[in-house]
Amino acid sequence: MNKKIGSRNFGKNVYKWKKNLIWLTFLLPTFICLLILTYIPTIKAVNYSFHDVNVIGEIQSNVGFQNYKVLLESSGFRKSILNTLILALMSLLAIPLGFVIACGANGVRNKKAQTVFRLGFYMPNIITGVSIVLIFQYILQVDNGLINLALSNILGKKIEIGWLSDPSLTKVGASIIQIWTTLGYNMLICLAGLQSIPTELYEAAMMDGAGSFRRWRYITIPLMRNNFIFLFITGIISGFSRFTDLYILSGNSSSGKPAGSLQTILMYIYQYSFENPSYGLSCAGAVILFIIVFTVTAINLKVTKTI
C-alpha cells in the first residue's frame, strides 16, 4: 500500500516538474541574456575592482582595497559624488510638479481632452536625449536664450544668466532639462494613481463635511503613497545614471565642464574606462555607485514603512 502511494506521489511530482519545465523553457532566453549581459559582467567588475587591470582586460596584480582608497581620497571623485547627489535630488522636483499637473488633468472630464493633455506632457519622453540637449542649449543661451529674453522683457533690463556656463548655475540648468524630460512620466504615474482612488471615499468625506483640502490631505496623499515611493526610487536611479545630456553639456567631455560642476560618478567611471583607461579604478567607482544607490533605496523603503 505504501509503495503504491509512494509511486503515485512520485508520478505527480514528475508530472508537475514536466509541466513547470515547459514554462521554464520560455524564461531560459531571458535568463541567459541576464546571465551574459548583467550577472557575469557585474561579478567581473567587482573582481576587477580589487585588481590592477591593463587596457585589454588582463589582471596584473591583486591590490586589495587600494583602488577604493585612491578614489575616496581623490577630491575629484568626492566632488563627483556630491554633484551626483545634488543633481539627483534636484531632479526629484519633477514628482511634486507631476502630481500637481496630474491633479489638474484628473479634473478634466472630457476624455478626448484628457488624452491630448497626457500625450502632450508625455512627448518629451520619446524624444532622444541628444535632441533635448540641443534644444535646451538654445533655450538657455546667455545672449539669445529664450529664458533670458523672457526675463529681460519682464524686468525691463538686459538679463544675461549663464545657465550652462556659470559653474554655480550649471546644476540648475541641467536640472531644468531633466525635470522637463521626466515631468510627463511622473504626471502619468500620478494620474493613474489618482484615477484608481474610489470616488466613494470622496463622497463619504463630503457627507461628513470635509472640505477639498481635508479630502486631499487625508484621502489623496495617503493613497498616493505607493506611487510616490515608486517615483522616488526610479527618480533616484535615473538621476544617478544620467550621462548623455551631461556629457554633451560638458562639450563631449567627461570632465563635467565648466570647472567640473557637472561631473557625476558615471562620468568619472567613463573617464577611467575610455579616456584614461584604468579598469580597476572604474570598476571600483561602479561598485561605489551601486552601494550608494542601494543604500538610498533601502533607507527610503525603511523610512516609508514606518510612516
TrEMBL record:
It is a multi-pass membrane protein. Keywords: Cell membrane, Membrane, Transmembrane, Transmembrane helix, Transport. PROSITE patterns: ABC_TM1. It holds the Pfam family BPD_transp_1. CDD domains: TM_PBP2 (cd06261). It is found in: Cell membrane. Residues 76-300 form the ABC transmembrane type-1 domain. InterPro entries: ABC_transporter_permease, MetI-like, MetI-like_sf. Its main location: membrane. The chain crosses the membrane at residues 21-40, 81-107, 119-140, 177-197, 218-240, 279-301. Belongs to the binding-protein-dependent transport system permease family. This is Sugar ABC transporter permease. It comes from Suilimivivens aceti.
